Amino acid sequence: MELLDKVYRFVSLRPRSEKEIRDYLHGKHASNQDFEKIIQLLIKQKLLDDSAFVKWWLDQRATFRPKGKRALKVELKQKGISEELIEGALGEGVDELTQAQKAIQKKLKVYSRLPYLERKAKLSAFLARNGFSWEVIKQVVNITNNN
Question: Containing domain of residue 35, as a range?
Answer without folding.
Answer: 2-48
